[in-house]
Amino acid sequence: MKNLFAVAFAITQVLSATAQAQLPAASANRPALDQVAPGYQPTVFSSRDQVQKLFDEMPYSFRAPSLFGLNQGSQCYMRAEIWTYDWYRNQNIKAMKAFVFYTHAYKEAYKKIYKKRFDWWFHVTPYVLVRDPQTQTLTELALDATFSDNPLEMKPWTDLFVYTKRQCAEFVPYDQFRCEVEGASDACPRTVIGTEHCYLVRVPANIYQPEDIEAYQAGRKHGFDFEINQVSESLDKAPLNSSKKFWKSRLGFSTK
What we know:
By secondary structure, this protein is of the alpha/beta class.
């Protein structure tokens, strides 16, 4: 009996090892974390302490954002643009951005639970990569100084506003889920109520808002340079009036 168990165990180990050997570390559907944007080489930090320091030094002087989509306050994509451009210009840090899109299925679930509407359709924040010196594995840390007190790994970050705590679908092209988040439009014959509660999209720092994601993924948006008019728009609309001169000076814009 022991011999039979030993043989069975050995076969199981061989099959497991073979399966693991055949399973690539990255695939077309799930690339390695530092290869999610082909051609773009994001900065990789060597310790979480470095990322914490970056987070602690993030200037925060924006108009208070509106939690439920009212037309006031700073917009998340503008804050993300200012922060990432600041890091790139002043510290030569090439960050990434994480967009989370909330589906109609999630909004229906939210309304049933909380008896009120959830009006956001997306949220975005910068994130960076940190490499564990022991294992060499990469971890993503979201730096959302508006809504968190410390850098967060990706799932805790999406959980900030996905109150059902569902895992977001990842590495899905925007045009494949747009009807689940945008609803009926010229591009969507009908609103789709699917099974996902959210979609997570990772893009280079220069991607500004959802329409740029679609252009980037379709190959219509090339290069990784920031568009200065988008930075300028963010500076005009996101910071507090008392902070605009500070930000424009910091980012090299005229303060006149």
